[in-house]
Amino acid sequence: MSLIQFHNIIGGQEQTARASFESYDPYTGKPWALIPADGVAEVDQAVAAAKAAFRSKDWAGLTATARGKLLNRLADLILQNAERIAAIETRDNGKLLSEMTTQLRYIPEWFRYFGGLCDKIEGAVLPIDKANMFAFTRREPLGVIAAIVPWNSPLLLLTWKLAPLLAAGNTVVIKPSEHAAASTLEFVKLFAQAGFPAGVVNTVTGLPLEVGAPLVTHPDVAKVAFTGGEPGGLAVYQAAAAQMKTVTLELGGKSANIIFDDADVDNAVKGAVSGIFAASGQTCIAGSRLLVHRSIHDRVVDGLVDLAKTARIGDPSQMTTQVGPITTQNQRDKVLSYLGIARAEGATAVLGGGTPAGLGDGWFVEPTIFTSVNNQMRIAREEVFGPVLSVIPFDDEEQAFAIANDSPYGLAAGIWTQNIGRALRGAAAMEAGTVWVNTYRAVSYMAPFGGYKRSGIGRESGQEAIDAYLQTKTVWIDMLGQTANPFVIR
Ligand code: NAD
Q1: Are residues 311 and 325 in the same domain?
Q2: CATH code for position 270
Q3: Residues 97 and 211 in one domain
Q4: Is residue 235 part of a domain?
C-alpha cells in the first residue's frame, strides 16, 4: 500500500521534503504516511519566514479587529473540515474517532474566544507623578513563537497555544511530535484559506534534537511554548534560559482522584473510569492515582472493575469503540513494563494487566486496575501515560489530602464528596492547577489550565493566556517642550 506524503508549510508555500520518515497507524502497527524529516536548514527557513511576517504590513499592519475576524474565519473552516481532519488524527495517533469528532467541533471555540480578545488588548494611561509628562503603556506581541507539541492530543494542545499567540499578534513555527504530525500538517493548510498572510503560521517536522532543539535556540525565536514530558521540558527550559527566552511549559502529571465515603459512589466510579481510561490513559490529566476511603474501598473497586470490563477495545475509527491503542510502540512497551514493575512492588491487578487478545499487530494495553498500591511505589509516583489505575486506600480527610499532594507533580486533582465544606477545603488544599469536584476531565477555552510543581510553568486557556504572548512597553512624552540643560543643577 502506498504511503501518503504530508508536507510542511513555510512562508505560505508547501515544501517538498528533502527526506521523509514513516508515521505509523497504531491500530495496525504499520506505516501509513510520510512526514518530512527536516533539519536546521528548514528551521532557519521557517523562522525567517515567521520573522518577516511578524514585521510585515500584511500582519503587523492589521487592525486588532481584523485579526479577530481572521481567527473567526479559521474557526468556521475548522468546523467545515472537522470530520476529515479528525479521521487523519485517528489514523495517525489512534485517538478514538468519536472523541476526535467532538474535539474538532470544540476546537473552533478557542479561536473564537481569543479572536474576541484581539481588540481588547489595552494599555493604560499612567497617572504619572511628573507634571510635564504624559505616560502610557502599549501591550505588544513578542515576535516569533516556537510551539512544540506532543503526540497525545496534537490539535487540541496546538490550539491552546495558537489561539492566544495569534490573537496577541505573534507569528509561529510549529513543531508537532515526530509520532503524530499528520493532522497538524493538514490543519495548517486552513490558515491560507482563512486569509492569514503567508509566514504567520509555519511548520517543521522531525526529531527532537534535529528540529526541536535548533528551533528552541534559534536567536530569532522570542519564546517557546512547549507541551510534553519532563525530560524534554527541562531541556527546553535550560536551552531557553541560556538565551534569556521565556517559556510556557505544560508537562506531565500523576493526578489524584479522591473518593470520600460521603460521595455518590456510582458517579464517582464513572468519573474515575473516564478519568483514567479515556484516550487509553494517554492524557496529562489522567486520574492515575485513585484514593478511596477504606470503608468503601471494596465497593468502589467492584464498581470500577464491573464498568471498566465493559469497555469495547479495538479499531479507533469505529464510532462504537471506547478504548483505542497506545500511540507508539515504545510507549506501549513502556506501559507494559510498568505492569511488571507494579506487580514486583506488590500491587495486584484486579482487571487487565496485559495485552488484549485478537487485535492483530495493534499497540494495545488492557485497561488495568491495581489494588494494594501505596503512594511510595513507582506505579504511584511516576507517570505511566497509559490505561493503568492505582487504587490507594486512606482513612481520613487529612491523610487523603496529604497523599494527593505527596507527588512531584501538580497538574490536576479530583474530589468526590457530597459535603460542600470538604469540597471547598479540598479545592484549597490541592497542590494542583485544576481541581474538579464531582466531575473529572472538564476543560474549556475559558478556564486557565496548567501545572503546579513539576507539571509546568504558566497557564493556557482563559483570558490570562494571552498575557503569556504579550510584553508591555512604557512610553513617556514631555508635554512642555522645555528640555532642561543637563549641566545646570536645578
Ligand atoms: P516529549 O517531551 O517526548 O515530546 C514533546 C514534543 O517536544 C515533541 O514534539 C518532541 O519532538 C519535542 N521535544 C522533545 N525533546 C525536545 C528537546 N530537547 N528540544 C526540543 N524539542 C523537544 O513528550 P511526548 O512523549 O510527545 O508527550 C507525552 C508527554 O506530554 C507526557 O509526559 C504528558 O503528560 C505530557 N503532556 C502534558 C500536557 C499538559 O498540558 N500539561 C498535555 C499533554 C501531554
Answers
A1: yes
A2: 3.40.309.10
A3: yes
A4: yes
Least confident window among 102-106, 403-407, 481-485: 481-485
Residue whose CA is at the smallest distance from ligand 1 atom 13 = 208
pLDDT tens string 287-306:
999 999 999 999 999 999 99
Q: Is 284 a catalytic residue?
A: yes
For atom 14 of ligand 1, the residue with the nearest CA is 232
Average pLDDT (28-54) is 98
Number of domains in the chain: 2
Q: At 164, is the pLDDT very low, low, confident or very high (cuts 50, 70, 90)?
A: very high
Give the distance (Å) from ligand 1 centre to CA of residue 394.
33
> Whole-angstrom Cα distance, residue 426 to residue 169?
39
Using the predicted structure, report yes or no on whether residue 455 has a pLDDT greater than 80. yes
Q: Is 206 in the pocket of ligand 1 (CB under 6 A)?
A: no
Write down the pTM of the prediction.
Answer: 0.97
407: containing domain = 256-437
Residues 117 and 102 reside in one and the same domain: yes
Q: Looking at the structure, do residues 150 and 188 belong to the same domain, yes or no?
A: yes
Domain identity same for 406 and 470: no
Same domain for 299 and 216:
no
CATH of residue 63? 3.40.605.10
pLDDT in tens, 343-360: 999 999 999 999 999 999
Whether 368 and 352 have beta carbons less than 8 Å apart is answered as yes
Q: How far is the CA of 232 from the centre of ligand 1 (A)?
A: 6
The band of 484, judged by pLDDT with boundaries at 50, 70 and 90, is confident
Q: Please choose from 251, 334, 434, 455 the residue to mutate so as to test ligand 1's pocket, defined by most ligand atoms within 8 A of CB.
A: 251
450, part of any domain: no
pLDDT value of position 489: 81
Residues 135 and 167 in one domain: yes
386 CB within 6 A, ligand 1: no
With contact defined as beta carbons under 8 Å apart, do 75 and 115 qualify?
yes
For the Cβ of 427 lying below 6 angstroms from any atom of ligand 1, the answer is no
Q: Is residue 485 part of a domain?
A: no
Res 131 pLDDT > 80? yes
Residue nearest to atom 8 of ligand 1 (CA): 177
pLDDT tens digits, residue range 186-208? Answer: 999 999 999 999 999 999 999 99
CA separation for the pair 89, 180 (Å, rounded)? 8
Ligand 1 pocket: which of 151, 183, 328 to mutate (most atoms within 8 A of CB): 151
